[in-house]
């Protein structure tokens, strides 16, 4: 006798699990339930619909062949029954039933299942701010909210937008408002950097610079106190430091697992409500599966359980669940949390731990920064990529990698190449020797992903007296204290402007002149060398060390990194 599988939730994981199962067991009965009127859409595309890059909301709900994935589509093409506008209200695990209610008519029903999938996703965090119920304040997490926002913007009803939260969705929405619509846009973030928990502070500063260079106001280390409005509509955001005019507020302060139905059914969850599953994505009840934004799975770097609300993760896990519903034994050991986000001129991406996270998790970690062209330096079209690698000092194990670049596809290619190495606990030697494709229009003969591992190797060996770009910025800001001696190792033409602008602090000794001018370098100050990207200054540092200068460091990333930081230089 064929099984009846009920899937609660029909956005990402649910449809993937249902369709995979039906392909393997075409005679089985599958029923999907979702309380929304529209299902199976790309929620991560909402900012791009708001910006106008995606033309219509229907595009987010369509297949690559432009067929709308609605209830009729699933019935006709997948033989999956779909109940839209229907909320699952409770699960009786002993009786193996799900109670449902039509949200439009109030009609109730009880459905029996053989196996069940909880794919209810996540819900936006809604802090108890005073005035949060004012019109014009939204988390922008579904298609209905997206349409309201897009219509208001397109109709000229929004002059000032405020985004609360500087994570992925928050920054993507800020870019959509400022870049595509020319709206005065502000971002308010409680932490002291954008992309907190994902980007190291120095790269986060570069991302902030990209936002501010495109007229987005970024307010960090700042908290919302309340919202004010007139005639029931928001007009101001009041923080602990300022008042900001607002016709529209996007609440992008994170999400939490939408798992009340699982908690009430007695399924094992962690303190935040994320469902605990095994490698097969079975819950504590073997007849019930779950994945995506609902669950917690192991972090493959730390070994601790983590929460990864990503559409890509939900789709992969949905396929695993569908396979196992059909009697298979598909597994996923865990995740490292790979991500990417597009800003204005720059894109950001990363995987694994930042240095701050590595230290907080007890690793004896270092990170190094490299600035290098993303393809052959002689190729006409190229960009200076920023890349950082995080390494465990005693084991040389890779813990994470993060970067920024003008060409996002070039950046994600490097991050994707290293993801399996981070997952498998590989070392920097594996990255140093990683075989990557090479042709001048695509990469360098010694690619940046190899170079960043080589720099880490040199730092660990004590051959590179390394200074992080953010540390150089701090030293330069404190240049009048007299403790530092700054040497520009570029040829005279490259150093001329800085020497003229700062004659008392900026000294030019090109690499080619280090030997004959070594006596000009003081031994009683911290010597800091810098060049365009860090390569010449590293070589100059090695030579100066050989000639007896010990108190010396080379600034990683050189002037390229400093310009991205928008440093006072």
TrEMBL record:
Organism: Halodesulfovibrio spirochaetisodalis
Protein name listed in UniProt: Pyridine nucleotide-disulfide oxidoreductase
Keyword terms: FAD, Flavoprotein, Oxidoreductase, Redox-active center
InterPro entries (alphabetical): FAD-bd_OxRdtase, FAD/NAD-bd_sf, FAD/NAD-binding_dom, FAD/NAD-linked_Rdtase_dimer_sf, Pyr_nucl-diS_OxRdtase_dimer, Rhodanese-like_dom, Rhodanese-like_dom_sf
The organism's place on the tree of life at top rank: Bacteria
GO molecular function, one term: oxidoreductase activity
Family: Belongs to the class-III pyridine nucleotide-disulfide oxidoreductase family.
A Pfam family per the record: Pyr_redox_2
Domain Rhodanese, chain residue ranges per copy: 480-567
Cofactor(s) the protein needs: FAD
